[in-house]
Write a structure and sequence with these properties.
mainly beta, Thrombin, subunit H, 47% strand
Length: 99
Amino acid sequence: MQALTLCVDPVLASAGDDGVVCIWVPSDSKDHAFGDTAEQHVEDKESWRVKHMCRSSGSEIYDLVWSPDGIYILTGSMDNIARIYDSRDGICVVCVTYL
């Protein structure tokens, strides 16, 4: 994971070397990894699930930030393109190329 940020609402966004932005929301289920037992996760306080996966060109994302209203996510990547995603549906609404 290259970048992680928290929005005002209980929503997280993460991004990494694969060029994918994941938008996370709290989950009510306590799913465990295959082979794990519930006893191994007794101290887990919360659980999150991926709401949207926003795919870019595959270039490494090195930073992301939320808009002040908590709706949009701006990413900067190694392909010199800034992308703005709508966190409500995961769609890229704007791409700006650095020159």
